[in-house]
Write a structure and sequence with these properties.
Layout: H1 2-11, H2 25-31, H3 33-36, E1 40-44, H4 51-60, E2 66-71, H5 74-87, E3 92-97, H6 103-115, E4 124-127, H7 145-160, H8 162-166, E5 172-176, H9 201-223, E6 229-234, H10 249-263, H11 278-281, H12 283-290, E7 301-303, E8 306-307, H13 322-336
Parallel strand pairs: 1-2, 1-4, 2-3, 4-5, 5-6, 6-7
Antiparallel strand pairs: 7-8
Helix pairs in contact: 2-12, 4-5, 6-7, 7-9, 7-13, 9-13
């Protein structure tokens, strides 16, 4: 009965056209052109060859008003801005230096955004930046790097610029997650892995990706009444990115399989990754950013340019629980040293 009720609510949509794993970014930009045109978009983690850069380039074809390119490295932003200009000469870009591994630098970046009088509104924020499979190290503020960068930095940054987001007529926040959230829930009493003693890089990655999903759930719950829509997005395993630069796959792939097998996940018996091109990998970002008529799914997990189904997709209950989301919000406020009450 519960499955029947879920399927009825999750698959019914006012959109006549349905999308799937084969949907391309260009197809969605064409379909959502009227929703993209003139918008101000901010995307984090913009590096050449990465998904944030590809998103900016693909979306530019829809003629947004401004794309804010955020990254630690200004030279990398310049390279991406040149590619966007080549694809869409009339689309403006602006660079924002953002180091998510430092709360002080996150605050500095947020202050910069808030000081831009000529950018009163940010319609879409795509929190794309992230680390995967790092050896154990701490952020500047003393948090395990994947949890600190992938979640805490974005949590703080998004909340600090929230007034500009809410000034939009149709604000959205997209948090890039992964089906890797299957690897670990939030480690409430050991999120720092006992200073490395209990660390497993895949458990760390799983915790951070669970946090991305719970953050979208909280934003939808707290600010949905003010028009904000927030979704978490799984791009799949995508060609050409440098997300795996910290991994020695001869060692780390068997370790990933072992982590999955220990949890009984079917991925534990996959002997290799199945890659998709960036045209398809970035499509779910565009769907989450601009698809009309998905408000009823606010806070949900998106993959393959559709709303995820926990009965058939890898969606763990620890990443969709309102209680876990509220607990994480409170913990995140404590860790960043600031409360955000809405």
């Amino acid at each position: 009965m519960f499955r029947k009720l879920f399927r009825k609510s999750s698959t019914k949509s006012a959109m006549a056209k349905q999308y799937d794993t084969n949907t391309t970014s260009d197809e969605l930009v064409n379909d959502f052109g009227s929703d993209i045109k003139g918008k101000t978009i901010l995307v984090t983690g913009v590096t050449p060859g990465g998904l944030g850069a590809a998103y900016a380039e693909f979306v530019s074809k829809g003629q947004p008003g401004l794309i804010i390119l955020a990254s630690r490295n200004l030279e990398k932003i310049k390279t991406v801005a040149e590619k966007v200009a080549a694809a869409s000469p009339n689309v403006k870009t602006r660079a924002l230096q953002l180091d998510l591994g430092s709360f002080a630098k996150v605050r500095e970046a947020a202050n910069t955004v808030n000081s831009w009088a000529d950018v009163p509104i940010i319609d879409v924020v795509v929190n794309n930046a992230g680390l995967m499979g790092t050896d154990y190290f701490l952020t500047e503020d003393g948090f395990e790097s994947q949890f600190g960068t992938n979640h805490l930095g974005h949590f703080l940054f998004t909340n600090l610029i929230i007034n500009k987001i809410l000034a939009s007529k149709a604000p959205r926040v997209v948090n890039v997650t992964s089906d890797g959230h299957r690897l670990n829930p939030i480690r409430w009493f050991d999120y720092n892995f006992d200073e490395g003693k209990t660390y497993n890089k895949w458990h760390g990655y799983g915790q951070s990706k669970t946090a991305n999903m719970l953050f979208s759930l909280s934003l939808a719950e707290k600010l949905g009444k003010r028009g904000l829509q927030s979704f978490s997005v799984h791009p799949g395993t995508v060609e050409g990115t440098n997300l795996g630069i910290y991994c020695n796959w001869d060692v780390d792939y068997p370790a990933l399989m072992a982590a999955d097998k220990a949890l009984g996940n079917p991925q534990g018996w996959d002997t290799s990754f199945s890659f998709k091109p960036q045209q398809r990998g970035v499509a779910p970002f565009i769907f989450a950013s601009f698809a009309p008529n998905i408000k009823e799914h606010n806070g949900k997990y998106i993959l393959e340019s559709r709303i995820g189904d926990p009965y058939t997709d890898t969606i763990k209950p620890w990443a969709t629980s309102p209680i876990e989301a509220d607990r994480l919000w409170k913990l995140s406020e404590k860790l960043v040293g600031q409360e955000f009450s809405y």
